[in-house]
Design goal:
Mean pLDDT: 92
Structural class: mainly alpha
Helix content: over 70%
Number of strands: 2
Strand order of the largest sheet: 1-2
Order of helices and strands: HHEEHHHHHHHH
Distance between the termini: 30 Å
Radius of gyration: 18 Å
Number of helices: 10
Shape: globular
Low-confidence stretches: none
C-alpha cells in the first residue's frame, strides 16, 4: 500500500469513527449550536468591534465558532489521543506500517473537516434565526477556520504527551481554555475586558483565532483576512507540531 493510500485509509477510519460516536457528534457539533441559541436569547443589543457597531448576535456567531473549533480540535482530540494511548490502542497501531506523522495528519484533517461543518451550521443558524448576514469575505473566514483547526489539533498532540492519565485530560484541557475564553473576546466583547487581561490574552492563540474569525463579519468587503492573527496561529501550530513530532508516544505511560 502506497503512502497516499495508507493515509487515505487512516483518514477514512478516523472520520467514520468520529461520526459513529454519538458523544463526539453531540459535544463537537451540537453543543456550539446550543451555546449560540443560549447566548442569543440572553444577550441583546449591540457592541463595538474595531470601531464599528455590530449586533451582539453577529459578535457571538464567530465567537461560538471559536469555541466549537477549540472543542473539536483541542479538548476532544487531546482526550481521544490520551485515551487511545493509555488503553494500548496506539501501541497496537505501532505494529502496522502507519507512521506517527500519518496519525497526526489524519486526526488533524478530521478536525479541519469537522470545524468546517460546524462553522457552516452556525453560519446557517445565525442567518436564518438571527439575521446575521453571511460575510461576502468567505475566503478569509474559511482560511481562518482551516488554520485555526489545524493549529489547535497540533497543540492537542503536543499537550497529550504531557498528560499521563486519561482521567486527567478533561480537567487539564478545560483549565487551559476556559479562563482564556473570557479574556480573549470569545464570550465578552473586547471593549469590556481590562487592558491587562487583553495583553495576557494576546499571547495565546485563542485571542487570535477569535479575531481572525470575526474579521469577515466586521469587514464584510474584501478578502476578510486578518494576516497578523493568522501568522500568530501558524507560529503556534508549527511550534506545537515540532513538539508533537519529537515527543509523540505510542505506549501507555506506565510502559514508558
Amino acid at each position: 500500500m502506497t503512502g497516499a493510500a495508507l493515509f487515505t485509509h487512516q483518514f477514512r477510519i478516523d472520520l467514520l469513527r468520529f461520526w459513529r460516536n454519538p458523544q463526539s457528534r453531540y459535544f463537537t457539533v451540537l453543543l456550539p449550536i446550543v451555546f449560540l441559541v443560549i447566548f442569543a436569547a440572553i444577550f441583546k443589543g449591540t457592541t463595538i468591534v474595531d470601531g464599528k457597531t455590530i449586533k451582539l448576535t453577529t459578535f457571538y456567531v464567530p465567537g461560538i465558532m471559536t469555541l466549537g473549533i477549540i472543542s473539536a480540535c483541542y479538548v476532544n482530540l487531546t482526550q481521544a489521543v490520551v485515551t487511545q494511548r493509555e488503553s494500548g490502542e496506539l501501541k497496537r497501531l505501532r505494529g502496522t506500517p502507519l507512521p506517527a506523522s500519518f496519525v497526526i495528519a489524519s486526526r488533524t484533517g478530521v478536525g479541519v473537516v469537522v470545524a468546517i461543518v460546524m462553522s457552516a451550521l452556525l453560519l446557517l443558524l445565525g442567518d436564518l434565526a438571527y439575521g446575521v448576514a453571511v460575510p461576502q469575505a468567505m475566503f478569509g473566514l474559511i482560511l481562518a477556520v482551516i488554520v485555526g483547526a489545524a493549529t489547535f489539533a497540533c497543540i492537542a498532540f503536543a499537550i497529550s504527551t504531557q498528560i499521563r492519565a486519561a482521567d486527567s485530560t478533561a480537567p487539564a484541557t478545560n483549565l487551559t481554555v476556559l479562563p482564556l475564553y473570557f479574556i480573549s473576546g470569545v464570550f465578552v466583547p473586547e471593549t469590556q475586558i481590562p487592558k491587562l487581561l487583553r495583553n495576557i490574552a494576546e499571547v495565546f492563540p485563542i485571542y487570535h483565532l477569535a479575531n481572525a474569525l470575526r474579521q469577515p463579519f466586521v469587514e464584510p468587503h474584501g478578502a476578510g483576512i486578518s494576516g497578523g492573527d493568522l501568522l500568530v496561529l501558524a507560529v503556534w501550530g508549527i511550534g506545537a507540531l515540532l513538539v508533537a513530532a519529537r515527543t509523540f508516544r505510542w505506549s501507555p505511560s506506565a510502559l514508558g
